[in-house]
Amino acid sequence: xxxxxxxxxxxxxxxxxxxxxxxxxxxxxxxxxxxxxxxxxxxxxxxxxxxxxxxxxxxxxxxxxxxxxxxxxxxxxxxxxxxxxxxxxxxxxxxxxxxxxxxxxxxxxxxxxxxxxxxxxxxxxxxxxxxxx
Amino acid sequence: xxxxxxxxxxxxxxxxxxxxxxxxxxxxxxxxxxxxxxxxxxxxxxxxxxxxxxxxxxxxxxxxxxxxxxxxxxxxxxxxxxxxxxxxxxxxxxxxxxxxxxxxxxxxxxxxxxxxxxxxxxxxxxxxxxxxxxxxxxxxxxxxxxxxxxxxxxxxxxxxxxxxxxxxxxxxxxxxxxxxxxxxxxxxxxxxxxxxxxxxxxxxxxxxxxxxxxxxxxxxxxxxxxxxxxxxxxxxxxxxxxxxxxxxxxxxxxxxxxxxxxxxxxxxxxxxxxxxxxxxxxxxxxxxxxxxxxxxxxxxxxxxxxxxxxxxxxxxxxxxxxxxxxxxxxxxxxxxxxxxxxxxxxxxxxxxxxxxxxxxxxxxxxxxxxxxxxxxxxxxxxxxxxxxxxxxxxxxxxxxxxxxxxxxx
Lengths: 133, 409
Hints:
The structure holds 2 protein chains of 2 kinds.
Chain A: E1 2-9, H1 11-17, H2 29-49, E2 52-57, E3 65-70, E4 73-78, E5 87-95, H3 99-107, E6 119-123
Chain B: H1 3-25, H2 28-49, H3 55-80, E1 85-87, H4 102-113, H5 120-131, H6 136-142, H7 147-164, H8 174-195, H9 206-222, H10 226-239, H11 242-245, H12 265-278, H13 286-299, H14 308-321, H15 325-339, H16 341-351, H17 361-373, H18 377-390, H19 394-407
Helix pairs in contact in B: 1-2, 1-3, 1-4, 2-3, 4-5, 4-9, 5-7, 5-8, 6-7, 8-9, 8-10, 9-10, 10-12, 10-13, 12-13, 13-14, 14-15, 15-16, 15-17, 16-17, 17-18, 18-19
Organism (chain B): Micromonospora terminaliae
Pfam family, one (chain B): Sigma70_r2
InterPro entries (chain B): DUF6596, RNA_pol_sigma70_r2, RNA_pol_sigma70_r4_t2, RNA_pol_sigma_r2, RNA_pol_sigma_r3/r4-like, WH-like_DNA-bd_sf
């Protein structure tokens, strides 16, 4: 069974990672390196157990484009998010034995030093028929 | 390492870095600013710290970070002004055959910067900055305008590109030829600006000529178009004569009196080889014809030994493509050299009826030369003075006055 573990971040979190001075103290290069090492270690382990399907990080929210239709024509808005809005920052897709196992993996993505941080785990549907209750 | 060589390294990287940013993130206008700032950072840091292992990657990283910063500031501002949504008729997939790479990006940037919706001054300034990697200050110096003026010019051009929502993709099909013509014209104007400024003290601004040649070489590498080869050849063959164009005191020396031993043999060899390789391919256009004429001049050991009948024939081909009064002036002089001054004077007098060129100092100067050749010094002197009165360029005025004074005897 496949599960998607979703990690969130706001533009402000990205700024902290980029070492930009702002309302919050920027991450030091050491802290950032430690974070990368931690993430790499988890993914390496998942690759070895055969549970890793895919993992990607997304660029800062400021680079997002929102596409809508207006009178049938696409209309594009650049960087539609507010500074503090939490949006998808990256994901890891795993294939594992159970929801509980996926949850166990997901717990390792939560930074224990960041008060209130969370990740979401969601089962991936096998096909459209699953959605037709 | 010396600053000069860092600049030589940075300029060719400028369009590659900008191309990488725009391709990945969009925002042509802001990405262009970010690229400039990254180039500036490199220009100050590299001479002191040495080159990074991968200069291009270093620049892309620094420019990307800067882009994020600039976008944040911009979007925060825009949000307060109520978000601006842009029409997206531009999300057309690029043609399937376009393979993204650096070279491709430089070409796409040239097409963007020379877009016909921009005024010529904006096209030129933006091309020099975005593709040439020159700073606004350098572009301003080259065109003898205040930096603030040039900044506004570049900003406006970039805003227009942003607002027109042009896709970051090379033009395809029928549009491509027209857009390539626009690019060629802009490079031609840059070269001309460097070669003969229409106003001001300095006769020659070598930086712009060198820059135009560098950009034309880039374009020649990226496209197989014979007119691109023609333009590059024309620039090389014209620039070859630069060392002989001005006397030690800065006075203008006309081609007939230039010391041909000072012409740059390397430039002539490269230019004539390009002409020889391109003309037989057919699809002959105005740049190739002008290059062929320049090659005949450059290969001749003297004015007398120049193949004037061939030059007359080439000018007539040019006129058949595009009837232009300045070409008619040159044609008249070539006819005079081939068939005697009276034949040329008749053509020049007929041109007096063409309002576009009747009062142009070049027509009067050409008349003066031919009258001198025809053995009419008094009429020649009057014509030289008439030409001097109409010229905007001080070096030209001094030259024309000197010619008139010589005949005052």
